[in-house]
């Protein structure tokens, strides 16, 4: 399926905003979390660890949804439905995670670098609101 | 299951903030939306119409999840897992919806009052972050 980012809402992907991520648990019920993300130009990328529930959720059900609202106007938001296409290990320094910290104006040690992964999410549908 | 609202995050339910709601589509994939809500003291209440996709989602899978972030500190958020316990018709004036408008500082006509419903969501788990 080919999808295009609505140009009217592209800024919501480019700004260091907070994505509300919905995944499906093994019992079929949904779960949400507020997450950092990065937009590569065609993928939403997030970091996670191999040891957490949400990571296990992806194994069973790679489809997910996320929404990003404009903090200056919460009636304006972008809804994305997508799929975890690939999970890569972050490197020994957790460089991807460090890049995210920089994007969000933070800097702190990453003691779990050894289990840090990069989620590559392929959007399958964008819905622009507001 | 008995659950208690974390007192540290009760304000996020009481303030007129925006909930990111996750539901599960009939094909098992998640869907998100940004929604108004009201906290009754033991239920999260939202309005919807009988004619929309998300309403149909609830019929098949009444379990949902939502997250509410503090706009003054997005690292502070409340995650709720719950279930649609009951769906009531709003009245002919859509009084519930009008009350929500007032809570959110809005006032406009409700042409779809005839199909407006009140979702009563029973929380089954709260997770306080930040």
Automatic annotation (TrEMBL), chains A, B:
GO terms for cellular component: cytosol. GO terms for molecular function: coenzyme F420 binding; oxidoreductase activity, acting on the CH-CH group of donors. InterPro entries: F420-binding_dom_put, F420H2_bilvrd_red/Heme_oxyg, Pyridox_Oxase_N, Split_barrel_FMN-bd. Keywords: Oxidoreductase. The keyword Oxidoreductase applies. It comes from the Bacteria. Residues 8-125 form the Pyridoxamine 5'-phosphate oxidase N-terminal domain. The keyword NAD does not apply. This is Putative pyridoxamine 5'-phosphate oxidase.
